[in-house]
Amino acid sequence: MSTSSDVPTPRKNPAMETELGEFKTLEQFIIEQQDQFPHSTGAFSRLLRDISLAAKIVNRDMRKAGLIDIYGSTGETNVQGEVQQKMDALAHREFVLALRRGGECCLIGSEEHAEAIPMSTTSEGDGKYIVLLDPLDGSSNIDVCVSVGTIFSIYRLPDGYDKEEPELEAALQPGTQQVAAGYVVYGSSTMLLYTTGDGVNGFTLDPSIGEFLLSHPNLQTPERGRLFSINSGYYHSFEEGLRNYLDWLQEYDSETNRPAKTRYIGSFVSDFHRNLMKGGIYMYPATQGNPKGKLRLMYEANPMAFIAEQAGGRASDGRTRIMEKEPEKLHERTPLFIGSEEMVQRAEAFLAGEPERALPDT
Ligand code: P6P
Question: Is 356 a member of any domain?
Answer without folding.
Answer: no
